[in-house]
Design goal:
Main location: membrane
Order of helices and strands: HEHEHEHEEHEHEHEHEEHEH
CATH architecture of the largest domain: 3-Layer(aba) Sandwich
Mean pLDDT: 87
Low-confidence stretches: 1-42, 55-61
CATH topology of the largest domain: Rossmann fold
Strand order of the largest sheet: 7-6-8-9-10-11
CATH superfamily of the largest domain: Response regulator
CATH class of the largest domain: Alpha Beta
Membrane topology: Lipid-anchor
Helix content: 25-40%
Subcellular location: Cell membrane
Family: Belongs to the BMP lipoprotein family.
Number of helices: 10
Strand content: 15-25%
Keywords: Cell membrane, Lipoprotein, Membrane, Signal
Length: 382
């Protein structure tokens, strides 16, 4: 395993450069909290909560006139991990399943990428779907961007969508992108409020700009909640090695390292590797935050659900559902340019009731972001 970054305020203090402005105070370690959370140590002073508040993520897709999608044949090309990853791909699958239930969608086909596969494998997968008459075709993940660019040009009458990329400038391609940093900000606040050590951690799957958005928002949320809090940030693999999204054992090792340094709430954005992060949290009796799907309710990680206090909801399910609906209704121009907090494209989960006591606080920060009073950067601090 190669670690691409480790960020703690203690380490920064040794070099004399602050990683998080105003977070210089070291509140000390302390024992790990019991599973289920609790209030912060008194030494971790929280910043004033902004005025206002709104509702948390409702978990619903858009409403409107009933749409019939029974004539569509929808192809879904998953990223590595596929259906069953308890994260990003499963969220896409949930959107497809809801489209079947709500809109009468009948014919679908799902294909899955292999770790570190060559580019032509992605193109072959998309081309296969197009040749078999699937239309639209949804590519789940930015890794498909180049392949969609090539294949969509060959099939101009087939509609394509790319989750997490909007760089393909073809008339038959729609980008479905998100404000991951906004949702991550909110769970950063939650992490501070549920930490006893005033010390939290982030585990990313692969060190790429997309996952850095999760880190960036999380760190800013932590800083907004408390100037005292420490943050660990580490990636399972560097850019170019996408096995970091499908290696629970390495996720476990990285999480255990952060826990050993004092982090008692760990936020993971690591795909299927997040299972290992959850297992590490449970074995060390600390807390965890999921990502993409409401992971408290995911069957594949149910053995760790008692330590999952919330999940940052990246509503790939909403985007997939809304895209299918827009294709069926010929209303693609109504889709949001970016699925952010205002569009219910990101948010946080409340399953399990473990953050019910701080929901008003999270909603106050949420409203500040929606109103433009807080701007969340998508670039992590150094």
């Amino acid at each position: 395993m190669r670690r691409s970054r480790v960020t703690t305020l203690a380490a920064v203090a040794l070099t004399g450069a602050l990683a998080l402005a105003g977070c210089a105070k070291d509140s000390g370690g302390g024992s790990a909290p019991p599973a289920g959370g609790g209030n912060q140590a008194e030494s971790c002073k929280k910043n004033p909560v902004p005025a206002g508040g709104g509702g948390g993520s409702t978990g619903t897709t858009s409403t409107g006139p009933k749409v019939d999608a029974s004539a569509l044949k929808v192809g879904l090309a998953y990223d590595i991990g596929g259906r069953g990853d308890a994260s990003f791909n499963d969220s896409a699958a949930a959107g497809l399943d809801k489209a079947k239930a709500d809109m009468g969608l009948k014919e679908t086909k799902e294909l899955t990428a292999a770790p570190n596969e060559p580019e032509d494998a992605k193109q072959s997968r998309l081309r296969q779907l197009a040749q078999e008459g699937f239309n639209p075709i949804i590519a789940v993940g930015f890794a498909y961007a180049k392949s969609v660019q090539a294949v969509a040009a060959q099939f101009p009458n087939t509609k394509f969508a790319v989750v997490d990329d909007d760089t393909v400038q073809l008339p038959n391609v729609t980008g479905l992108v998100f404000a991951e940093e906004q949702g991550s900000f909110l769970v950063g606040v939650a992490a501070v409020y549920k930490s006893k050590n005033c010390h939290v951690g982030f585990v990313g799957g692969v060190n790429v700009p997309l996952i850095q958005k999760f880190e960036a928002g999380f760190k800013q949320g932590v800083k907004a909640a408390s100037n005292d809090a420490k943050v660990e940030a580490e990636y399972i693999t560097p850019a170019g090695d996408f096995t970091g999204f499908q290696d629970p054992a390495k996720g476990n090792v990285v999480a255990n390292g952060e826990i050993s340094r004092g982090a008692d709430v760990i936020y993971q954005a690591a795909g299927a590797s997040g299972k290992g992060v959850f297992e590490a949290a449970k074995s060390k009796n600390v807390l965890a935050i999921g990502v993409d799907s409401d992971q408290y309710n995911q069957k594949t990680v149910e053995n760790s659900r008692d330590v999952i206090i919330t999940s940052m909801l990246k509503r790939v399910d909403v985007a997939v559902y809304d895209y299918v609906r827009a294709v069926a209704g010929n209303t693609l121009n109504t889709l949001p340019k970016r699925f952010d907090l205002k569009a219910d494209g990101v948010g946080y989960a409340t399953s399990g009731g473990k953050i019910d006591d701080i929901k008003a606080t999270l909603d106050a920060y949420k409203q500040q972001i929606i109103d433009g009073k807080i701007t969340v950067s998508d670039k992590p601090s150094s």
